[in-house]
User: Fold these one by one.
Assistant:
Number 1:
Amino acid sequence: MTIKAHQKLLLTGAAGGLGQALRERLKANCEVLRLSDRLAFGVAAAQEEIMLADLADAQAVSVMVQGVQAIVHLGGVSVEGPFGPILQANILGLYNLYEAARLHGVKRIVFASSNHVTGFYHQCDTIDATAPARPDSLYGVSKAFGEDLSRFYFDRYGIETACVRIGSSFPEPRDRRMLATYLSFDDLHRLITACLTTPVLGHSIIFGMSDNAVTWWDNRCAKHIGYVPQDSSDVFRDAVYARTSAPDLSDPVAQFQGGGFVVAGPFGA
Ligand code: NAI
Ligand code: 15L
């Protein structure tokens, strides 16, 4: 099966950690990969275009979106912090992106949501996509907004979105919590590919995780996407246990799925 489902694909947040990890991988999904970020990050290679844009700038976002058939949206504030930048990038910026998609006829978006939409569930809870949001931070609230905004644009305008509640996507798990939340870069690419190629995506929420032995999330509501993880955090388990100490179970950081996000801040405006 070809995974080249779109002629021109836009990747936002291209200068960030996941953007860099996906830059080469996503070229298999399109003829031309348009890369965007607020920050400059070098020159375009073969099969690439670079278009810088601040998500808060509606005009720049419109130009960025024009001419693509699908979007992988990673751009934005990726951790808890002051509300001002979160508001600009993750709330106003997301509105600008969906308005541009509507105006330019883009019909499918993969939105990098986050496990922090549901970070205030306990680590002994197993939740699926029907569980009500319980954001653990203003950052998590902004991702919950993104999930609602994208649902509105699907119901009203038919723009399909996969809200991928990414767990922890790094080269390897950094602590014991991430053994449950780990998503390898290759599995992230498999997941995005599934979102871009499944015949009917609709508006879907899927937890972005590898095939980890310990998990808090159940993806049964997203079977239609056809994502099958092939990696697992289990190969890192012994090393993570050896370099970390047992969690203090009276600490909220160890009780809730969101880990340190449940106590981060307040940061003010
Ligand atoms: P990152 O912080 O490394 O990259 C985010 C990129 O967005 C940066 O290059 C930044 O310059 C850009 N950006 C920020 N504000 C912007 C604005 N106003 N306009 C345009 N660009 C802007 O984050 P990372 O780890 O690459 O994550 C990518 C996405 O995935 C983020 O949306 C994050 O919330 C989400 N995510 C990542 C997880 C992970 O484990 N890496 C877990 C859950 C969600
Ligand atoms: C996220 O949403 C962040 O973007 C990422 O930096 C990690 O902190 C991740 O969640 C996590 O929960 O480990």
Note: The mean pLDDT is 97.
Number 2:
Amino acid sequence: MSRKPAIIGAMDSEIAMYLEHGEVKAEHKWHEFVFYEMNLKGVDCIVSKSGIGKVMSAMVCQHLIDTYAPTEIIFTGVAGALNTNLDIGDVVVSKDCMQHDIDGRALGFPRGTILFSDKSLFEADDELHDLAMASHVDGHRIYSGRILTGDQFFTHKDIEDHAYLTTDMAGDCIEMEGGSIGLVCAENNVPFVIVRTISDKADGSAAEDFSKLHHLVAGNSYSIVSQMLPKL
Ligand code: SAH
């Protein structure tokens, strides 16, 4: 079966390079979202910007699946580092992802688990994960890890309040869309991977670093995805 991947980014800066380097064949609108049918590196794919957060990304992901029947979903973007070994510009490829802000502990469910279910960790597809890991970015590491997702931009001035992100949840980086993409893909049985370049360290300077750097570092995620596409 020929492959037709869908690629989602949350912000213009995360999809700009796809639109620049690929050939756009058609554009479709659905509500405020635009879906670009395009050819990139010889591969027909659909590229879209979701906007920020779990709800926006879930809407776009489900619409993509229902309308275009992609063979896989690849998320491309930036994230804050939790793992202190990671530097700005390094890339985290999801081994798995989880919503860190779903919290039913008062009802006996562990943090990160969707209440009254056993759904918590969403595992990336092995082939997509391994293809991303086999890519190369000059001067930066590509790291296989756990992505934590929630509807907050994390600045960790008060790290001790959020120690569970690294101790209980073993997160390597933190962002706002991966866990909802993972959930929608798991429900629809569609393979996925999340590719996130570190734009900040989710610390006291995160807002400043993110604002300065997200345009620049988003290119590392693009570079990895563009190396993956011809190998699908
Ligand atoms: N300034 C942007 C909002 C950015 S929110 C605007 O006005 O549109 C941050 C985006 O980058 C999200 O898509 C999230 O997935 C990712 N991200 C990067 N660093 C993050 C951090 N420290 N905490 C949470 N999300 C982060």
Note: The chain has five helices and ten strands.
